[in-house]
Specification:
- The chain is about 40% helix and about 15% strand.
- It is of the alpha/beta class.
- The protein folds into 2 domains: about 80 residues, Rossmann fold, CATH 3.40.50.10860; about 120 residues, Rossmann fold (3-Layer(aba) Sandwich).
- The strands form 2 sheets. Strands 1-9-8-7-5-6 form a 6-stranded parallel sheet.
- The longest helix has 18 residues.
- The protein is globular.
Length: about 280
């Protein structure tokens, strides 16, 4: 019986974290702090900030969490962190307060401290093929493909999702690898038909179970960046139905696939900023 190859992220994440730890430990200067700006009252944001802080401690990266209530406090915290010479990197944790315009945030995060790759400057560098900091999830997806020696040159890749956090940065990264790419979104007329043409399917739509087993084949590599919780609290669930992992030739499980690599990439970016080699 044919078995799907599961692409788990633990091993790759470990090697990336080791790289970050070595970078911090061999620096001649004490590492600068990673500032994490997060909204008050959001349990998932608080849990993730705590997780990043604990992970940072393990590799020698100092962190500081700054809790804000609204846009005024967020931009005040961002201004202070941007000007503080002891802060090396900045993460502005989602969800943003309702009165925050994302484009204002993208314009104000300084390029050299933007370890999450959300600023206009870093996105522009990415699309110009001169990246500095790349959005971590998109980078993690590509790293997983390369880790498993997936041939991308000329491959037919379908990306489901066009967000500025994942879909569009991933398109730029894969285009640089000479893949032939189709990007699908909410206006795509026949998603099933587009997906069926893929040799490599990358899913980052933010909708649990969007990709069903009948849409994929045993020749397809499926990289699922979804991380969803249902109204009843169940999850995390990928953007692919769990049975996709029983059909595809290779599949990144949720949890345990793209997620650990995303965190590791973010820590590596923060380590680079902390020692001034970003």
């Amino acid at each position: 019986m044919r078995m799907t190859e599961l692409w788990k992220g633990k091993e790759l994440a470990g090697s990336i974290k080791a790289e970050a730890k070595k970078l911090l430990s061999t620096s001649n200067e004490p590492p600068k702090t990673l500032a994490i700006i997060l909204p008050r009252g959001d349990a998932s944001a608080a849990d993730y900030a705590s997780f990043i802080a604990k992970s940072g401690e393990k590799i020698g990266l100092p962190t500081q969490s700054i809790v804000v209530d609204d846009a005024k406090e967020l931009f005040s915290a961002l201004t202070q962190a941007s000007a503080d010479p002891q802060v090396g990197g900045i993460i502005v944790q989602r969800p943003y307060p309702q009165d925050v315009a994302e484009e204002d945030l993208q314009a104000k995060v300084p390029e050299e401290k933007d370890v999450d790759g959300i600023s206009f400057t870093n996105l522009g560098r990415l699309f110009a093929y001169h990246p500095r900091y790349v959005p971590a999830t998109a980078s993690a997806m590509l790293r997983l493909m390369k880790h498993h020696r997936l041939p991308l040159k000329g491959s037919r890749v379908v990306i489901v999702g066009r967000s500025l956090a994942v879909g569009r940065p991933l398109w730029a990264l894969l285009l640089r690898e000479h893949a032939t790419i189709t990007v699908c979104h909410t206006r795509t007329k026949d998603l099933r038909a587009e997906v069926s043409r893929a040799e490599v399917l990358c899913v980052a739509a933010g909708k649990a179970g969007l990709i069903t087993p009948d849409m994929v084949s045993s020749e397809m590599v499926v990289v699922d960046a979804g991380y969803n919780y249902l109204d009843d609290g169940s999850g995390p669930l990928g953007d692919c139905h769990p049975e996709v992992g029983e059909v595809a030739g290779a599949y990144t499980p949720v949890p345990g696939g793209v997620g650990p690599v995303t965190t590791a990439v973010l820590l590596l970016h923060a380590a680079r900023a902390a020692v001034g080699v970003g």
